[in-house]
Specification:
The structure is a single chain. With about 375 residues, this protein is mainly α. Helix 4 runs antiparallel to helix 5 and helix 6 runs antiparallel to helix 7. Strand 1 and strand 2 form a beta hairpin. It is globular, with a radius of gyration of 19 Å. The strands form 6 sheets. A 3-stranded antiparallel beta sheet has the order 3-4-5. A 3-stranded antiparallel beta sheet has the order 10-11-12. A two-stranded antiparallel sheet has the order 1-2. It has one domain: Glycosyltransferase, CATH 1.50.10. It has 12 helices and 14 strands. The two termini are about 25 Å apart. The mean pLDDT is about 95.
Length: about 375
Amino acid sequence: MDIAEELNYFTKVSQELLEGCKKIAFNGTILYTPDGVANYDALWARDLGYMAEYAGDLIGAENLEACIEFVLSGQREDGWLPDRVEASGEPVYAAGAKGTPVGEANLDNTPFLVFAVSSYLKLLEAKQAEDGREKFRGWAEAIFKGMDCIPLSKDGLVWNDPERPHSPYGFTDTVCKTGRLFYESLLFWRACRQLSGMIRESGLSEEKAKEYEKKAAQVEKAISCLYDEASGMYFAAELNCRQLDIWGAAYLLYIGFPVEKRVEVGLKNWLLENEETYLYRGQVRHLPQDEYWEKLLEDVKPEEYQNGAYWATASGWVWYVFQEEAPKKAEKLLLELREDFQTGGVCECINRDYRKLPHYVVSGVNVRGPLLRYEMEQFNKGES
């Protein structure tokens, strides 16, 4: 497989999607909405985080900066950052229709904004670096307050109260995962790691940097409580929805979350040996085939949307694992995904005789990002 050719294809797809999803806010800010057909007609924090990380170079630092400030403008008095901000400037904190939220405020709002900020700073050239550090210093207090809102268990994992649950990670925001949470804790860990670095680089408090390092270390130590020795996988949650988290396994491996070697090998083996239970046309189910979430925050039919459909959101992470371990499987995944995009459009999610929402931006950029990362890693290996 010519990965450079595939990267060119998915970069073109990402460029087209990003251009098509633009919306001008009341103050002139260019918003990058999740899709090109105005179904999700606002700037979402998590979609911005993915777009910034995997295609920030296609957006540009100036536009990213404006989007970050647009999200920050919607911070609530208690510190919660919004799930999304509408073009009018009105913030919304939880998933679901405005006025009828699906649970409490989403648990991933602040981590994804942190990812956007980190990606923005990396885009700046050396001569602009001090301007970026100054921007971060201006944003830092709001971000810290947003991180402080996230409920944690005594051992430092993200906690969701079963009596009054938050909507969790946005791509499972209809799912009532409760107790200590896996994917959301990975997001929190990564945000803590990135914040500690940005704090030091911008010359802020060393004590604050160490505070986030400590929180990240707590997640690393406590995450084993969700590990399932029998399967070699992690459960999505401790209480409700104690089910194997396929997206979480792929994401853990992709971001380099530190685990024992036997655990890493077990996760890779599960993904490689069970592909038929979670892959369809190169896209990824949240749970193994014929399994559905035990509890939902709102009704979702089996085999649709977040309760059994297949998403390209996670395809890049799985591809990256396959590319390192079994390149032929990686090639098959990517070819099937490309064919699906070309024949059926870039959808939010799909299933047999089911396609939801065309022109979905994250479906494109989340594949492009891992391809770009892999190409850069190969180039750097050749340089060394």
